[in-house]
């Protein structure tokens, strides 16, 4: 027993000796070196933090100085009794802001005046809606001439159009091209609705007031009598954002076209005229408490007989209130047919509906593989025109109740 106790005691002493050896392995020099390194790192972090704070406050002070310099000529700071900081602008700044606002209002008024034309019946010499905003205030005068040939082959019921050239275009013309539409009138003699049988364009001729096109187009007119068909040729100035400027147009009725004869035309370009190509059913509802107006696109009725089922159509709604244009809204895509059903409504702000001047522009587009194409447009609203908008008046008489009516689509 005593031997076992002796062995145990000797084992404990051996363990303590080994632990002491391990502990003594780290010398004082090493320990102080590690402590010095930790202190150095800590001081370095403090220096970096102090430098960054110095940079921040220097940058902030620079901004304050610049702001004071900027505002010293036009802004004077005053404190009222309630310790509220009031900034009073100098007369120079007010004059500049007023002139800038007046110029914006004038531009908006010009655009609304152009849109306003389309609340009246379709008279000759009016501008198409798809050119609103793209035509500048060019001086009235000669628009130039367009030279082309027509030939009708009765055996194949084919119309051949040879576009030769345009001459003496106005000075503002830069990159002209020709848009061609073949229109067919409805069988009803009292109806003004037409359908677009064919539509195409020539190439763009760069930097020329006398562009030579030299292009031929062939149009099939089977099942369409010549007496109901007209040819509409529009000379436009190309714009890369598709806001092409109208230069002038010419129309030719094919009812007097002699069969199998090549006829040459050299026509003066005239102002734009409108054509009705369909109707759209629109509902209006006024919400005076919420100060909003609800515009519903219900149906689109097309007169076109060549419906391409693969194409989709959608409607775009633009609202102008008190010379301010609101953000436009779009309907979802619908498959194109003779009668396309949308049944969609859209809300727009309309403060003080009884006094606010409002103009609503409805545009219908069809989708193509290369983008989109305008089908037609119509306008309605409370904007002052020669022709009163009965639909708008009906809406104001039946508040909070939707009122629907058909409107012609112009192109």
Q: What characterizes the major β-sheet?
A: 6 strands, antiparallel
What amount of the residues lies in strands?
35-45%
Order of helices and strands: HHEEHEEEEEEEEEEEEEEEEEHE
Number of strands: 20
Question: Which ranges are low-confidence, i.e. pLDDT below 50, for 5 or more consecutive residues?
Answer: 73-89, 116-137
Fraction of residues in helices?
A: 10-25%
Instruction: Look at the structure and give the mean pLDDT.
Output: 79
Give your account of this protein's structure.
It is built from four helices and 20 strands. It has 411 residues and is an alpha+beta fold. Strands 13, 14, 15, 16, 18 and 19 form a six-stranded antiparallel β-sheet that branches. Strand 1 and strand 2 form a beta hairpin. The protein starts with a helix and ends with a strand. About 9% of the residues have low confidence.
List keywords for this structure.
6-stranded antiparallel β-sheet, alpha+beta, elongated, single chain, 411 residues, 4-stranded antiparallel β-sheet
Q: Can you give me a brief rundown of this structure?
A:
The protein is of the alpha+beta class and 411 residues long.
What's the arrangement of secondary structure elements?
Elements: H1 2-23, H2 28-72, E1 75-79, E2 85-89, H3 91-116, E3 145-153, E4 158-167, E5 176-185, E6 194-201, E7 212-220, E8 229-237, E9 245-253, E10 263-268, E11 276-287, E12 292-302, E13 312-321, E14 324-325, E15 329-330, E16 334-335, E17 339-349, E18 358-368, E19 371-381, H4 390-397, E20 403-410
Antiparallel strand pairs: 1-2, 3-4, 3-10, 4-7, 5-6, 5-8, 8-9, 11-12, 11-20, 12-17, 13-14, 13-15, 13-16, 13-18, 18-19
